[in-house]
Specification:
By secondary structure, this protein is α/β, with parallel strands linked by helices. About 40% of the residues lie in helices and about 20% in strands. The radius of gyration is 20 Å and the shape is globular.
């Protein structure tokens, strides 16, 4: 099982009501929550660990997880409120305003870490759940406790405007990075973690030197790249699609990568230390494929396995038609 550990919240998405007035519509979300949903839809065995409220929004979160085949039995239920994130969309790109004080997801106790079920192969961490204390320390403590025996993946998904204690946050990220097997960062994340004039490739190398077996860098429309320790980067181009919005794109990408690594039976610490460039490329390509579907529709709405298979089949058909047209247009050389 892949256990996703982090925030579950309600995204308040801008909309227009039946009277034509601007309003907000609630959707279940959160970076780690979105990755769990995407994994469940891709048929990976998935669990979710977070603080979830007993209020109506908490019920919406648990129902949404169940509909996407995610086990939420590890969730810590309380009567504290649910975190809300009001979304602002500018040319399809999302920015957020969070309301997270004294919430069910924030007030988790680092001194009371749960025991994990047998069969938990990997733990995934990231998002705003690594910012606000004491919940952030709960997740950091869990990652460090489990890191000797289980794969740890981190996507900090940094929201700089939400950080109140930058020194503590940077120290927390450094601790988790040092114990992580996979670290995924956007180019913006990487420049925040390692400021200065170094190239992105050099900054990736510095993250690798901190301990992870694999560091993945996403660059928006410029594609993705990844480096294993001591090796050159493996790159995959982004897919060209009509972008509706980018909500949940990175979260879905992470699910694609994890699901492919699980399918390849590479979610062990030793396997990741020896992962081949071809397997890295396969994982990145699956991440790109699922993210491309997500950005082509509104909100964090990851694809189901059946949708991914259908999209791949259509792509193969187009490729075959293109190859056929090229072959027919190429003059034959006489012997």
């Amino acid at each position: 099982m892949i256990l996703c550990c982090g925030e579950a919240l309600i995204d308040m998405i801008p909309s227009v009501n039946e009277k034509g007035q601007p309003s907000f519509t609630p959707y279940a979300g959160g970076a780690v929550f979105n990755t769990a949903i995407a994994l469940g839809r891709l048929r990976a065995r998935t669990g979710f660990l977070s603080g979830i409220s007993s209020d109506l929004f908490g019920s919406l979160l648990r129902d949404t997880l169940a509909r996407s085949n995610v086990d939420s039995s590890m969730a810590i239920i309380s009567d504290r409120p649910t975190t809300l994130a009001f979304v602002q969309l500018t040319n399809g790109h999302a920015s957020y305003i969070f309301y997270d004080e004294n919430t069910a997801g924030r007030l988790l106790d680092p001194a009371n870490l749960p025991e994990l079920p047998d069969g938990t192969l990997a733990l995934y961490f990231g998002g705003i759940s690594l910012i606000g204390e004491p919940g952030s320390e709960f997740y950091a403590a869990l990652a460090l406790r489990e890191s000797p025996d289980r794969v740890i993946m981190l996507d900090p998904n940094i929201r700089a405007g939400f950080i109140k204690d930058e020194r503590a946050y940077r120290a927390r990220l450094d601790r988790i990075i040092a114990h992580a097997d996979i670290v995924k960062v956007s180019d913006e994340d990487l420049n925040w973690i390692i400021p200065g004039m170094l190239s992105l490739d050099d900054k990736v190398s510095k993250i690798c030197a901190m301990g992870p077996s694999l560091v993945i860098l996403t660059k928006g429309g410029a594609g993705v790249a990844a480096a294993a320790q001591g090796r050159s980067m493996v790159s995959v181009m982004a897919r060209r699609v009509e972008v509706v919005d980018t909500v949940g794109a990175g979260d879905t990408f992470n699910a694609g990568v994890l699901s492919k690594l699980s399918e390849l039976r590479l979610l062990t610490k030793e396997a990741l230390k020896q992962i081949s460039d071809e397997h890295i490329r396969m994982a990145l390509e699956q991440g790109v494929r699922v993210a491309a579907i997500t950005v082509s529709r509104s909100g964090a709405n990851p694809p189901w396995a059946e949708e991914l298979a259908a999209a791949d089949a259509l792509s193969d058909q187009r490729s075959e038609r293109s190859d056929s047209a090229t072959t027919s247009a190429t003059p034959q050389t006489k012997e």
